[in-house]
Structures are given as structure tokens and as C-alpha cells.
Amino acid sequence: MAKAILEFEKPIAELEAKLNEMRQYSGSLNIEKEIFTIENKVRLLKEELYKGLTRWQRVQLARHPDRPFTLDYIYEMTNNFVELHGDRQVKDDKAIVGGFAQIDDYKVMIIGHQKGRDTKTNVYRNFGMANPEGYRKALRLMKLAEKFDKPVITLIDTPGAFPGLEAEERGQAEAIARNLFEMSKLRVPIIVVIIGEGASGGALGLGVGDRILMLENCWYSVISPESCSSILWRSWDFKEQAAEALKLTAPDLLEQKLIDRIVPEPFGGAHKDHKEAAGLLKEVILEELALLVKIKPDKLIDQRIDKFGRMGAFEE
Amino acid sequence: MAWFSRNKENISPDTQKKELPDGQWEKCPDCGEIIHKKQLGNNLWTCIKCNYHFRIGSAEYINILLDEGSFKELDKKMRSADPLEFTDTKKYSERIQATIKKLGLNDAVRTGTGKINNMDVAFGCMDFKFIGGSMGSVVGEKLARLIDKAVKNKIPLIIISQSGGARMMEGAFSLMQMAKTSARLTRLHEAKIPYISVLTDPTTGGTTASYAMLGDIHIAEPRALIGFAGPRVIKQTIGKDLPEGFQRSEFLLEHGFVDIVSHRKELKNNIYNVLSLMS
């Protein structure tokens, strides 16, 4: 599979390609020293780049086509995954997947938005943009988890809920609202992880829980930088500024006290190593699960409602 | 002289544009009827000819729905704190300041307690004219406290929505107000206290996708725009014109997301009746 390279990653990718070339000739030519120097240079350049990522660069990383998606995490982190389908009302939404699985000793319900990796799979997955039946499927699975006393893990990665004609007819707004309401009072622990894009209500529709985690290179906000630019600047050209203004990265949200914890990614981003990315996330999920399963349901729900109650900034 | 310039008026408009004499008249955007402001007010800001419902704010709804002098406002002074220090073409803090000064409202919702035909209620009403009725931290917090009040006093909750959705200038804070208000409503639900959501023109985005769609009963004003995505976005996405009446109250009634479409003149009666039957 061809690896996609983002604009800002190009200088490094070029240097790395040069390095590989040089390594091939290093037997016949005496260039060991030069190779060593360039290797060092690449390493420093990388460290500098990934330490000082702008918000817009992180948005791009969050959308990286090679990034692990929900099913990648599920396959890497869990055993015995049984995918369940359909909302029992209209159809099976391919933009949201979910089912029972086992993560170490814990049996859980794991649900998430699913993007595609190429045009064909993206069309099949509707680019990770769910219709109402996606949210209703998710709710059905959560209720199932509640019935059998299994914790819920949701993975968020969507450019938004689908803005379509049928979506409106079948109550997109009601479906999301219902999930917010029902997730608030679900009697089992819920761990929410933003693994890529967290765009507005479409993301929040799976986003109410006891612990909100966010991977290092993700964004989560009320609107995408592009749409924000088009509305407030009346042009699509201010997406970088909009990303800065929206303060939508994981470090931003941690500072705003809207998430609980940042999950580290492999150096250079989760797309560099799916296995490592999933391993890092699994570790954190297991830690959080161990704490959450001890809390009694009534207390859990009270804490959850109050947790969201504290979010906000106002003057009196 | 240009080739295309017209030396004779061949086409004239079907109807002559009616000029509005002074500030005393309003033109119905739907049928074009010219109505005197006093007459319009007496008719609860609905067109005397075609029943078009003019957009009105919290002051008017308080007058129309609550018993005279019964409204006691809560958290009147609460204001946005601009948590992101947001700037687009203008600073958000200045936008807020200017809007407060211009409208005499502190944010996009007013909350309080009041009476409907002598029945105590917790009452919240949004104002579209305050930054598009957008929901930021203040709207979320005021509504959350209103819900608490309804639970504590065991009185029904009524929220009149008119909002373009979550407020962009507070980023993820605005988004979380959807979760905050919805989570709080579960406590009202557990306490078995009725909640009537009134949807007026327009109710879209994050507002619809949270408290506005979580009422025990949904009452909408005629022909109000109600939806999740805005019509412009949907049109761009599907690349087709939208059907007549799409996302209007009657459309939502037809698709099962609204219980009652009520003329503004019947609104108080409808709310009171339904509350009486549920209590």
C-alpha cells in the first residue's frame, strides 16, 4: 500500500529516501560518516517538527489516510470480537461499527465510527459520517452492554454526522440527542476515546462517558476548521487561523478540562505504527477500566452527569 | 453605447413594490401583506392574512405564555467568559459586548420561574437575535440550572428554542453544553417531571441535537425550520434542490418528530392542556 505523505512531512520523507539510497551504496563507497551525519540531522529535524506541530498540522495528522481506524484498534487490542449489525429499525449503518469483544480479562462492548482507506471503502463507510441509524445501532449495542453488565468503549473518528435528506427525515438530531441522554444514564462504565477527528454533534453522539481520552494528534470541536472559516471569514482560505482560534487539539482540550487524559502516539503519529498505537491505547484503557468497574452504578451516573455539568466558562 | 442596453422597458415586475411609509409598518415576508405594527402585536406577531409567524424574542414569549407579572428571572447577570480568547474577523469578547449593549440581553437564553394559568413552571426562552441564538457556556449553564430548579421545586419545564446551534466562538465548550443539558434532563426524567420543548423558527444544529429534541412533548410553531444540518449544507452535499416544506414543522410532524404544530395564539392553551393532563 502506498504511504500517504503530508505536505509538512515531505522534507523529512525526502531526506529519508536519500538516506536509503546512500545506504545501498555504502558498501562500495566509503560514505559511512556522511550517512551518520544525515541520520542525526533527520532525527533532530523530526524531533523539532513533532514537538512544534501547529494545530492545523495536528488536524492533518488526525485525518491521515494511513492512520489506524476503529476496526484496526479493535483487531489489535481485543480478542473474540463479534461484530453486531443494525438498529433493528431501518438498516445497518456502515459508518459506525461495534460489538462484544474481550480486552485482556475484560469483556466489553466496543463501538466506533469507521472510515474507509480508499475511495471504494470510503464510499462503503460513507467517510465515517453516520446516519441516524448509526447512532441508533450504537445505542442498541450500549443497551445490550448495560443488560449484561459490560463496560462500553467508544472510539470517535468522524468528520461529522451525515447532512443528508434521509438523515433529516429519520431524525438525525433526535438520534444524537437520544444518545446523549441515554449515555448519561447508562448503568455501566463508559470510556470515550477520540482516535482521529471529533467533529461536532456527530462525534459527541458517541461521546458521553466517565472518562474522555484523546490521542495525541486528534482534534475535537464544535465545527471543522474549514467550515468555521467559511462561516466566520466567509472564505475557505482561513482554515489555519480557524484551527488556531478553535483551540481544538488534545493539549488544548486537556487545559480546558474537557477531556481527562491524552493517550500517547508512536513517534511521528499513530499512522507510523498501528500495533504500537493500539498497544499504547490498550494500556490506558486497561488502567481506566480497572478503576471504573469498582464504582457502583448510581455513583457512576451521578459523577458522569456532574462531570459534564462542570464544563463551561462564564461570569456572574 | 453598449449593445445590450435597453431603450424601452419591455418587462415590468408583476406586482409593484409597496413602499413602507415610516417605522410603523411591517411587511409579511411570506405573502407581502403590509401590517401595522400595533395590529401585528395584537395578533401575536403572526400575519393577519397568511398566518406567517414572525420571529419574536424572549420578551414577547414571556408576555404571550406566562401570567402577567409572574416571571421571576434566574441568573440574569451571567455572561460569557470567552474561554478561548477567540478572534475571527472580530474579537469574540467585543462581539459579546456590542451585542449586550445593542439588545439589552446578556446572552441567548433567559430563564426563570413563572405561572401558566396559575400553574407554576420553570421557563426558558432563547433569543435568536443574540448571535443567532447560539448555545455557548451561558446557555448551557442557565438551562442546566433551570432544570435543577424544576427538579427541586417539582414544577414542569418549558423551553422555547430558537437557535442556529452551538456557538462556534467557544469551540468544544459549546459542544459540551449539548451533553451537559442532555445529561441534566435525565434527572428531570427520573423525577417524572414533565418537559415540554417548544420549537420555533429556526431550531437547528446542536440545539436540536440536544435538549430541543428531548421533550416529553414537542410543540412546534407553524412552518418553523427545524433540523440538524442547515438546508444550504444539505443542498451542497446531495447536489439537488430540496423538496418544498423540507425541515419545516409540518414535515417533522409528518415524520414523527413533533407532536403538535400549534398556532402562536393556541400555544399557551396547548401547553397548559397537555401539562394538566400529565400532572
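qc> Chain B has two domains: 22-54, 56-278.
qc> done
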